[in-house]
Amino acid sequence: xxxxxxxxxxxxxxxGALFTLRALERxxxxxxxxAGCGFNLINATNAGAGYLGGGYxxxxxWSSTNVVEREVVFGGDDRLREQIRxxxxxxxxxxxxxxxxxxxxxxxxxxxxVASEFIEDDVPVLAIPTxxxxxxxxxxxxxxxxxxxxxxVDRNAQSQPNTVNIIGLVPGQDVFYKGNLAEIKRLITKLGxxxxxxxxxxxxxxxxxxxxxxxxxxxxxxxYGIQPAKDFEQIFSTPYxxxxxxxxxxxxKEFLLSVANALQINLDLVHRTIAEEEDRYYDYLERIADxxxxxxxxRYAVVVGDANYAPAVSRFxxxxxxxxxxxxxxxxxxxxxxxxxxxxRFDGYESGISPLVKFDVDTSSVKRYIGETWEPGRNERYYDxxxxxxxxxxxxxxxxxxxxxxxxITLSYPTTNRIILNQTYAGYNGGLSLxxxxxxxxxxxx
Amino acid sequence: xxxxxxxxxxxxxxxxxxxxxxxxTCCELRSCEKRGGCLNLASRSFSQTQGCxxxxxxxxxxxxxxxxxxMHGPIGCGACATGVVGxxxxxxxxxxxxxEGLIWLNTxxxxxxxxxxxxxxxxxxxxxxxxxxxxxxxxxxxxxxxALIGDDVDAVxxxxxxxxxxxxxxxxxxxxxxxxxxTAYDDVYHGILRGLVxxxxxxxxxxxxxxxxxxxxxxxxxxxxxxxxxxxxxxxxDEDELERLLNAIGLNVRFLPCYSDADDFKFALESSLNVSxxxxxxxxFVEHLQTLYGIPFIIDTIPIGRRNTxxxxxxxxxxxxxxxxxxxxxxxxxxxxxxxxxxxRPSLEGKTAFLAGxxxxxxxxAEILQDLGIEVIGFKGHHYDRFAEPVFGxxxxxxxxxxxxxxxxxxxxxxxxxxxxxxxxxxxTGGNNISAKQGIPLLPLFGPSYNYMGYSGVFEVxxxxxxxxxxxxxxKKLAEHRPLPYKASWYEKDPxxxxxxxx
Lengths: 446, 503
Hints:
By secondary structure, chain A is of the alpha/beta class.
């Protein structure tokens, strides 16, 4: 049984599902749920994900059955049937996906059966139940991906040796998902591979339809997308490889070498690519050699983020920026195996830095852990304080930032104080933007 | 009115015969409403997501100071609070610089709770909130899942109250119970009335020898004090303007419920009149205050637009026998406003506008547009009931103007807008990206930092409309490049095709 949460940094399975579908081109979700579910979720994730918006469907335009007491008592199948029929009349899409909210999951509506009545229609109608009492946004992403792999991906596609799928970045929860996918795709393409990310720039439903052409599923996470990758393997016998989201030169180099190793790519090409990228990377980073050292821009750091960002950001800070991340709080509900996998990503830093790693879903807990990692001052004459420091997290860390006087850099959900468009924090370009964004807050008054 | 012995207030479909689905002219709508409840059971065979009483109850709950909210439900319920996490703090600190930001917990009901009940988890969350944050008030909005599985939240509250320092206020607002999301206001007021409204204790109450002079002073103050029931969609500048109007005729003003703390609800009883801004928001509250504490109330129009403002002010003045003072003040204000608006008329006269949002607010805002010479050619209101009727009085020539009763439902709106081609769209937050993609300039219907109310509000709206209409390249360019998600055939159909007579 999962506990209550002090300011959750995610919405529900339906929320994750809707924003996963929002990230696909011309997909029309049909929400079978109470009237407020969709509207609540667009208002949450629009703002939380740096003003991501509702995309093609605009959020407020999401088709929704808006079930009330009558359907809850007598069943909502008829209402859903009517709503699918009318949605097909009014809304223009290439794929219609029925997703569900708690009330219809509790009364046991058979949404798959109702959706299957529309099989003769010109466009596909799928039903993917997303019961929100079974999980949060991240679970909703997994449910939708697994559902699409099972119900939409072409089973006759032939696996191609140089094609990979990339999953594991959850649209909306990863506030930078689209920019990140672009950067990862750019790098892997340089290795001579064909890449599907499904949610990336210029991709369409065709990329998803042909997903079985891939010979490997790359999961950029130890947690998210793992279950869909396993389901994919079961259906199409395609193996998967889980690698951490790479930020900066060091992590991206390891990432590219792992990909090359898994797909037996010519190592000369890989090393040439890395050398070329590193040269470009350090050409930019070199610019701040003066200011970094002139005014001592090294900082202690606290990192708060999900299972993808917390390890990647901590390591980037320690091993590339030369910072001292003393505390890293991972804010997801994780099982023991997942915690172990994520905790392992904090081991073996080249810098020798070893942050205190905590797994905790409650926003108020972060403050307590700062006290645990650094002896609080007791008004001593000489006190070696936790300063100067920065905090990298979400807007929920704003009060903490004010209280401790640590500048805040927001990059994890919710990030309501930034407008995020095509920015990336992944790969080489991501390392440069993260360095730039952090140091910008430190020189903002100059 | 007294529903306080029941656990939950009646839904507005039942209490007010409110409706959420109608398409026709203003004239048809008004006569339909006068015949009583003919809108009542209508719904749609195609619908879009529209908000619920849980999410709308947060519009007030998120503003209350020194309070922690416990969203009792699965993890997504109340997630929209994320969107106001920054602004809530800023606006609370206008009232109290030391005010905390928005803090909420979610009880995260899961599969095991759906079977075994969520009461234990709620107790745990209340204890944590009480210990960790030491708030004055813990507000507990109850969502669909615990309502369906039958969690006895009132019993949990009664049990934990004994050990908690905070006052616990349950708010029963399960989304699936009503189609009229404005029922949310009744749910919130129900909780406030049952838990926070009580006579304040004053040191003078405890004196053995009566202090006549002090009592007289107190009564004099009360006689000159009115409560204005503010709404979360109004701004501090709006409040300043309304306060100015009432101060001008010699009255003192208190604002509640938004941005109040627990004590404000007690001291609110020390006043001689409750004045509504908007019947949709607060009829339940003021009716109860009259029944329980004998405080009279006024529900008439909303003070947006000069005629509405004058009517609103005169109703209050009449109550205090200050009509002559108010009339003099209004005449002076009118003259000043006329002079100030002159500069806007040439560029705005003859333009057309469509308004969408809360029914009371859009009808009132239309008065400002008509005042400026803009022709109002369409309305879309969240729902419809008798509280809209008095607001129509300030408008001219709207009998044949189309009125769509729809909570959100942007598909009907885009169809209407495509037909009517307004020069300006005035819209409620939440679906404005959709109107933006129709390439028209857009004035938000409300905004928590802008002034819309009173005389200064007319001027502010006028100057913003001119500014917004003078360059809307952003929306124009968007419309050229990003399509709306509707089939071409939809625009050929009657916009009200999917309204059906019965639920």
